[in-house]
Amino acid sequence: MEIIKALKWRYATKKFDINKIISNDTLQVLKESFNLTASSYGLQPVKLIIVSNKSTLKELVPISSNQQQIGQASHLFIFCVDTNVNEAYIRTYFENIKSIRNTPEATLSSFRESLISGFERKSSDDIFNWGAKQAYLALGNMLTVCAIQKIDSCPMEGFDPVAYDNYFNLKELGLRSVLVLPIGYRAGEDVFANMKKVRKDLKDSIIEIK
Ligand SMILES: Cc1cc2nc3c(=O)[nH]c(=O)nc-3n(C[C@H](O)[C@H](O)[C@H](O)COP(=O)(O)O)c2cc1C
Hints:
Elements lengths: L1 H8 L14 H12 L10 E6 L2 H7 L8 H4 L2 E8 L4 H15 L3 H17 L2 H25 L3 E2 L7 H7 L7 E10 L17 H4 L5
Antiparallel strand pairs: 1-2, 2-4, 3-4
Helix pairs in contact: 5-6
The chain binds flavin mononucleotide (FMN).
The site of flavin mononucleotide (FMN) has 9 residues, from loops.
């Protein structure tokens, strides 16, 4: 039941305590958790940008639908899709498998070639949409990990991705922002913290076929 307690404790935080900063040790746990997120084929097409500079965080508020949490957070996670999932990217991934697992070339080659030709047939929009799904998965993972670590967070689509991409020159890095997650510690006066969770009854959200 510890996990249910943590998930009930978590809420989309509307106000962070600007004076509380996440420790480097906890941040390291969050970084590793992000990197351990499952991804389609294991290709990890999502890159995480972590912003902690206070003046940068404040500058991002107007391009985040004026959501004040961005300026108050200890850190901001920006989930970005790598727009260069191409032949070279896939080859690098398979070289990593070989070096980590000592898997022989013969075991990997046909899977690698089918992935390369599969991705060559996709449009750049298709690849971006596929990558964005992986970003949502990483966000979900981070929401749970943060809750277990007693870190507050607010998942957000309410920001201007094009303005973020320009602000951080993401195009030059081959990235596009898709989601943001301010994290930190809830402010004592955030009235949302004690509100009851609004959820469907379990019977309305789950179909069990026995
Ligand atoms: C993908 C996604 C985008 C969201 N965008 C925002 C947002 O921009 N601003 C905000 O305050 N909350 C945002 N939320 C939070 C939801 O409104 C919130 O999770 C939902 O109402 C359930 O409440 P709870 O998370 O407090 O249990 C978002 C949630 C998700 C999953």
